[in-house]
Design a protein that fits this description.
With 331 residues, this protein is an alpha+beta fold. The protein folds into 2 domains: 93 residues, Phosphorylase Kinase, domain 1, CATH 3.30.200; 216 residues, Alpha-Beta Complex (Aminoglycoside 3'-phosphotransferase, Chain: A, domain 2). It is 48% helix and 16% strand. It is built from 12 helices and 10 strands. A 5-stranded antiparallel sheet has the order 1-2-3-5-4. It has a 3-stranded antiparallel sheet with strand order 6-8-9, with helices on one face. It has a two-stranded antiparallel sheet with strand order 7-10. A hairpin with a 2-residue loop joins strand 2 and strand 3. Helix 7 packs across helix 10, helix 7 crosses helix 12 and helix 10 packs across helix 11. The longest helix is centred in the C-terminal third of the chain and has 22 residues. The N and C termini lie far apart (52 Å). The model has no long low-confidence stretch (mean pLDDT 95).
Length: 331
């Protein structure tokens, strides 16, 4: 980015100074742009400059293009401001502009250190997610979708991961998971607990302030989903405190209950949340089974769920798994 463009963006963000310069700090996935730090003296701001290809032919390219539209809406249309008002620290939007080949988002710079999801870090990250979920709980999630956030939050939901689903093994426990996948996906969509989820709450998308306050960024995949999906992903893909996952999940539920109660809303029973969380772990594992495994070991949890559905032996069809999910996890 040339200094003149850095100065132009800074002026649109109501930042003073003439000697603005830009430093590239990160390339976006698939070469779709660059994140810059703009600086003038001691002042620092961030510009995310998305440049889309002329054609987005693949499912992956279309998913990424949609994600940047979503992130622009998140900052431009007041959703970041709602979270800030609710005590969730996110970048403050300074300027958003659409271009023929993409979008530019100018935001405040988060000060702190990259996320370290030890026990304490995981607790505070989950507490931030609980406040986020409470902010958009229930019908508010549908309103946010109508305003431009993702119809389905996360980047691993089944409808956008057909290639990974087709790549899943057909034998063993992963073959059983493949047969159960569509029923699990449908049950999570029908769950009474719905909100806007962050959609990618791994440790790399948190910064921790000097006082330990978690700060969230990267809102490309925020949209409507069962919030247990965020919790499962945060614990599996970011936390080093996996041996305390159940206790941490209960802590998240306490924080969610407090946040909902402060709004005069009834929190979900903890047992119902923990049941749904088991489905969310399995749903996350379905994507990884076809994409590649990473993070903490989900196999024991998924196998316990599958044993509950099929007694340890694969059922004959996806339809039979649908009946088993309805039996074990009634809505």
């Amino acid at each position: 980015m040339k200094p003149a463009e850095a100065k132009r963006l800074a002026a649109l963000a109501d930042c003073e100074g003439d000697a603005w310069k830009a430093k590239s700090i990160q390339r976006l996935w698939a070469g779709m742009g660059t994140i810059y730090e703009l600086s003038c003296g001691d002042e620092r701001i961030i510009a995310k400059v998305v440049k889309l290809p002329k054609r987005c032919d693949s499912v992956g390219d279309r998913r990424k293009a949609k994600s940047y539209e979503c992130e622009a809406a998140f900052y431009r249309d007041g959703y970041a401001a709602q979270l800030l008002d609710a005590g969730v620290v996110v970048p403050r939007p300074l300027h958003v502009e659409a271009r023929s080949d993409g979008v530019t988002i100018v935001m405040s710079r988060l000060d702190g250190r990259p996320g370290a999801f030890d026990r304490r870090g995981t607790e505070t990250a989950l507490a931030a997610l609980a406040r986020l979920h409470a902010c958009f709980w229930g019908p508010r999630a549908d309103e946010a979708v109508a305003g431009g956030l993702q119809e389905q939050g996360t980047m691993w939901y089944l409808d956008t991961r057909a290639d990974e689903f087709a790549s899943m093994p057909t034998k063993g426990w992963e073959g059983r998971l493949r047969l159960a996948a569509k029923a699990i996906d449908a049950r999570l969509k029908a769950d009474p607990m719905q909100s806007v989820v962050h959609g990618d709450p791994k440790d790399a998308n948190f910064y921790f302030a000097a006082d330990g306050t978690p700060q969230l960024y990267d809102f490309q995949y925020c949209g409507k989903a069962c919030p247990a999906k965020d919790v499962a992903y945060c614990l599996c893909c970011g936390s080093s405190a996996w041996d305390a996952a159940d206790e941490l999940a209960r802590g998240y539920h306490r924080d969610l209950s407090t946040a909902l109660a402060s709004r005069g809303e009834e929190p979900p029973p903890v047992d119902e949340f923990l049941e749904t969380l088991q489905l969310a772990y399995a749903d996350l594992g379905r994507w990884m089974s076809g994409w590649g495994w990473w993070g903490n070991d989900l196999e024991p949890r998924i196998c316990r769920l599958l044993d509950r559905l099929d007694g340890g032996t694969a059922l004959a069809s996806a339809e039979e798994y649908g009946a088993a999910v309805a039996r074990e996890f009634p809505v």
